[in-house]
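Example record

One chain of 188 residues, shown exactly as stored in the release files.
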Amino acid sequence: MLLGKVVYIAGLLLQIVIRYPYRRGRKEQKDRQEQLLLLLLTVGGLLLPLIYIFTNWLAFADYQPLLWLTGAGVLVMAAGLWLFWRSHADLGDNWSDTLAIREDHVLVTQGAYRRIRHPMYSASWLIMIAQALLLANWIAGFGGIVAFGVMYFLRVPKEEQMMQERFGEQYRRYMATTGRVIPKYPVR
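Predicted structure tokens for this chain:
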């Protein structure tokens, strides 16, 4: 369905626009695993969808799109993009595309980070789910979920360990009051 393809492309472009101001020309060193994970994410979340959209090479894995799934994809993409923007805005100069903490890093616990420790990962999960809902192809649609899932489950434990080492008890208290990717609300 053309609508799903158009919304996917628009979402992809908006992610680039949202992230661009935060890159600020930084070239941070990525280790081998980080490079492989980013390559996998590029294949599943970008290359396969673009091959599906602009060629017929993956047509054997197409399925009949359902309008209500496409509509759900539009809503999930919008929510994911909003959270992607909000988490970048809240992090500001603390954002890094690698697992790195700079000397002037501070622990951000406001805005999107008030109830979720990793709202940028939450946003990415939503965007990958939207990809699956928008692209009526078993390979291109679900490639992002698979690729991001591998990245998420390998990267987040390392990131949380790094944050605990840097911020100690402050981060452990923060962990107790927030959800990793799903908001945690106090029980009353």
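Notes: The domain at 2-20+33-177 is CATH 1.20.120.1630 (Four Helix Bundle (Hemerythrin (Met), subunit A)).
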